Amino acid sequence: MKELTEDAAPKDTRFNPSRLPATAKAQALVDEIRKQLLNYEAHRHPRRRKRRASYQERFDRIVTALVCDLAHSAMTDPAAWRHISLSKRRHGQDAVGAEFMTEARIPIIEWMSSPEMGWLELVKAERIRNPFGGQQSTIRASARLRRYLEDHDIQFEDLGRDPELMGDPIVLKGVKVRGKAKALPVPEGEPVATYRAEMSIINAALVRAEVTCGGVTKLGGERDTGDRWLKRIFNDGRLDQGGRLYGGFWQGMSVESRLQDLQINGEEVVSLDFGQCGIRIAYGRVGAEPPQGDLYCVPGLEQYRKGVKTVLTAQLSMTKAMTRKPRNTSRHFHRSMSIREIEEPIIRHHRPIRALFYTGFGLTMQFIESQVLVRCLLRLIDQQLIALPVHDCLVVPRSSAETTRQLMLDTFEEMVGVQGAVNLTEALSPGSQTRPFPPPRVLDVHAGDW
């Protein structure tokens, strides 16, 4: 399982218009800036007539979204910027993520960045002609806004989200071109309606859950434990490719941080991973039982397990045969070994799934894995148990570990057709490593293996 870990470098993100004040303290900040904006407008840009009620409501909503997202950004990473379009030709849902974000946002942002107000910093994008899309302007909280947040002790819990602006939990992306994939329109009807309903149940349960997190990020800031909205992202323009769940503050944490800092219902947590999930799914796909023991321990290549894992994953994921060893795997093999000398023992040992090699089966594996994980989450919710998903892993309270492990095994076998494996990893004393704890049905496997 590839970890999405917190980076020490500032990360610029897109402006999020869904944020709202959740407490009187945050509302007071919005009211103060709104009042100053109206005074600034009256002195510098006086109106000929009063705004209509609907226009004033939109003005207020734009101010609220800007102030709350800038506050959230300041608490998350003061050095990072928020991308936002200042083009008069682009506004609303497509450009800024909400219909109320009309071109009226442009003077508001400019006024808030003026020396007289100084509530935000603004870097306007250069006007360039680019067939692939131009740059966007960026904004971030000013020193004045950061001081206000500190002086009035405004925290993450003082900010909320508008559920109607969280976006569709189902995302469909096209084929990657130069490493990037564009978002595509999501078709209506089935299976999207079912997938969307499932994600609504999961997200609603996560919002209600009692999840706390100690510790700090690598940048020294607190984690926003209210960031729990998950999206299911499908790939290559198909609803049977990919489908993993993304989002949630815990997904950016390292394994060690999750186990040491997270608590669910006031309890310490453990991590339950499907062991060697992808290769077991491949065997289930062809209706064959996988070999006994460690699936990456191939006869003749026993001492090269790490390299075998990478090569086997590439064989199942790529669409054409390899001409050389995958990047960064040479160090895991003897330098004289060719890719053919590595592939042949793997093919002999895993001959039942040979037909899936070099067919691009990787995204199909992810789809089946995601279907299993979603089914597990829904079944746990039915039992009033909460779990935090990380691809092929569930983070659960220690008291529900055995129940969850058995449910994961039963669900995997039911949906994949072969017996699964689940590894439990728990936190040890500070500074020590986490360790896999194999439950009774788990063979000699390693946590996090595909």
What is the tally of helical segments? Answer: 12
* End-to-end CA span: 6 Å
- Give the overall silhouette: elongated
Number of distinct beta strands = 17
Task: Quickly count the domains.
Answer: 2
What's the multimeric state?
single chain
> From N to C, what is the helix and strand string?
EEHHEHHEEHEEEHEEEHEEHHHHEEHEE
Based on secondary structure, the structural category is: alpha+beta
Helix content: 25-40%
> How big a fraction of the residues is strand?
5-15%
What does the largest sheet look like? 7 strands, antiparallel
Poorly predicted tracts of residues: 128-133, 431-450
Radius of gyration: 25 Å
Which short descriptors sum up this protein?
seven-stranded antiparallel beta sheet, 14% strand, 2 domains, 450 residues, alpha+beta, four-stranded mixed beta sheet
What does this structure look like?
By secondary structure, the protein is an alpha+beta fold. The chain folds into two domains: 13-163, no CATH class; 168-278 and 362-437, no CATH class. It has twelve helices and 17 strands. It has helices at 24-44, 53-76, 92-96, 105-112, 143-151, 192-208, 255-261, 277-286, 305-317, 339-349, 362-382, 401-416; strands at residues 13-14, 19-21, 82-84, 120-123, 137-141, 159-161, 170-173, 183-184, 211-213, 231-234, 242-246, 262-264, 267-274, 388-390, 393-397, 422-426, 435-437. The N and C termini lie close together (6 Å). The relative contact order is 0.11.
